[in-house]
From TrEMBL:
Pfam families: KIND
Organism lineage string: Eukaryota, Metazoa, Ecdysozoa, Arthropoda, Hexapoda
Entry GO MF terms: actin binding; microtubule binding
Keyword Membrane: yes
Domain KIND residues, every copy: 23-159
PANTHER family assigned to the protein according to its UniProt record, in alphabetical order: PROTEIN SPIRE (PTHR21345:SF3), SPIRE (PTHR21345)
Swiss-Prot/TrEMBL GO biological process terms: actin filament network formation; actin filament polymerization; actin nucleation; cleavage furrow formation; establishment of meiotic spindle localization; Golgi vesicle transport; polar body extrusion after meiotic divisions; protein transport
InterPro entries to which the protein is assigned, alphabetical: KIND_dom, Spire
Keyword field: Actin-binding, Cell membrane, Cytoplasm, Cytoplasmic vesicle, Cytoskeleton, Membrane, Protein transport, Repeat, Transport
Protein name: KIND domain-containing protein
UniProt membrane topology term: Peripheral membrane protein
Organism (species): Pectinophora gossypiella (Cotton pink bollworm)
Gene3D superfamilies attached to this UniProt entry: Transferase(Phosphotransferase) domain 1
Length: 159
């Protein structure tokens, strides 16, 4: 369990779990002052897709995830449903209107976490497979083509 209180010897940000035993991705990035690894990115894509699919398919009102601070990670490694379901005091978070919007935003947030400590003119090199996934997830523009664009629907999971 991660509990780093105060600014320790590394000068990091306070990292402690909230009441739901979660921490947001932004705090993790700040605490380690580092990007996430490719393995972490794959795990985040998987865990977020599972959580997002469940929340979205249940018809719950879901809110946009556009920044690493919106991604709530439970201590067991899963992405907590509150990531989508509760915008908290963040009035900038809009209601999700399509799976496509959810997929694109997830890809952008995880890419940001992969690129966290790099300067704007410095590009992070990632594996072709991960780059392909991110490209496919962000390439959609027409909502009617969701299934062809990596949507989280059950049809795309079984194909």
């Amino acid at each position: 369990m991660m509990r780093k209180e105060g600014s320790g010897a590394t000068g990091g940000t306070e990292c402690s779990l909230d009441a739901a035993e979660c921490i947001n991705l932004q705090r993790i990035l700040q605490a380690f002052n580092s990007t996430i690894s490719e393995e972490h990115a794959w795990a985040l894509f998987y865990q977020a897709a599972r959580t997002f699919q469940k929340c979205y398919s249940e018809g719950a009102t879901c809110y946009s995830v556009t920044e690493p601070r919106h991604v709530l990670l439970h201590k067991d490694g899963s992405v907590h449903p509150s990531t989508l379901l509760h915008p908290g005091d963040d009035s900038s978070r809009e209601e999700i209107t399509s799976e496509q919007q959810l997929v694109v935003n997830l890809a952008l947030v995880i890419y940001h976490a992969l690129d966290y400590t790099h300067s704007e003119d410095e590009e992070r090199l990632i594996s072709p497979d991960l780059e392909g996934l991110i490209t496919e997830m962000t390439a959609c523009e027409v909502p009617d083509e969701e299934d062809e664009c990596g949507a989280l629907s059950e049809e795309s999971e079984t194909s």
